[in-house]
Design a protein that fits this description.
- The structure is a single chain.
- Helices cover 43% and strands 15% of the residues.
- The protein is α/β, with parallel strands linked by helices.
- Helix 4 packs across helix 5.
- Bound molecules: pyridoxal-5'-phosphate (PLP).
- The site of pyridoxal-5'-phosphate has 13 residues, from strand 8 and helix 9.
């Protein structure tokens, strides 16, 4: 069993160290504690240790866990880091404070509609299929300009780009590429880096790192 408070302290220290090497401020990096598959009892100790920003990859799972936790704990910020079906866009807009998986025109349209209807403008990252992998979520690099144009026209608040690099190979080139694409499009946010590579991501410009197992231990 992992000690959540100690794990959080360790991850925060590693974030601070990587930021320092890169001559960045640690405050420029938001740690998203990815709590998918973990129950409230496992999440509580991290909240008690001061963590407020959490990530989930499924709308239904988040809807089952987080409203109750939010009733007892102030200041929770919830990010959706997993793929989103257009028919869940309205639920996602109601529940989440940030969406990292905007990756196609139909979803942009559904999110715009949901935001107009609810009056809640939820910041979004456009997820890029950075390794051009078949069957992986994310917009193809070639389709990114058109998707960003559509989002702008629909008044969707796009704050950056997000990626999940291919598994099993060095992630750094993919982080560097996402950083370049974000710069080319004038976007400040870079959601990249997970438990195995968040320090690399920070050195290459990550503003949001999504860390699960390093904080919670392995998932079933
Ligand atoms: C699960 C998940 C993470 C966290 O992964 P770890 O390797 O456990 O840190 C980050 N991003 C996304 C999109 C995920 O689905």
């Amino acid at each position: 069993m992992i000690d959540p408070a100690a794990a959080l302290q360790d991850v925060n220290a590693r974030i601070a160290h990587a930021a320092k090497i890169a001559q960045r401020k640690a405050e420029e990096v938001t740690l998203i504690a990815v709590s998918k598959t973990h129950e409230a009892a496992a999440i509580e100790p991290l909240i008690a240790a001061g963590q407020r920003v959490f990530g989930e990859n499924r709308v239904q799972e988040a809807a089952a866990k987080w409203p109750a936790l939010r009733e007892v704990h102030a200041g929770i910020e919830l990010h959706l880091v997993g793929q989103l079906q257009s028919n869940k866009a309205e639920d996602a807009v109601a529940l989440f404070d940030c969406i990292h998986s905007l990756d196609r025109p139909s979803l942009a349209a559904a999110l715009a509609k949901a935001m107009d209807k609810t009056g809640r403008r939820v910041p979004c990252f456009v997820q890029v299929n950075i390794g051009a992998e078949e069957q992986k979520g994310g917009c193809a690099i070639a389709e990114l300009p058109a998707l960003l144009d559509q989002a702008r026209t629909a008044d969707l608040p796009v704050i950056g780009l997000m990626c999940v690099p291919p598994a099993g190979i060095e992630a750094a080139p993919f982080f560097a590429l996402l950083d370049k694409l974000a710069r080319d499009h004038g976007l400040a946010g870079r959601s990249m880096g997970m438990s195995d590579d968040f320090e690399t991501a920070i050195m290459l410009g990550a503003t949001h790192v999504r860390v699960g197992s390093a904080l919670f231990g392995g998932r079933a």
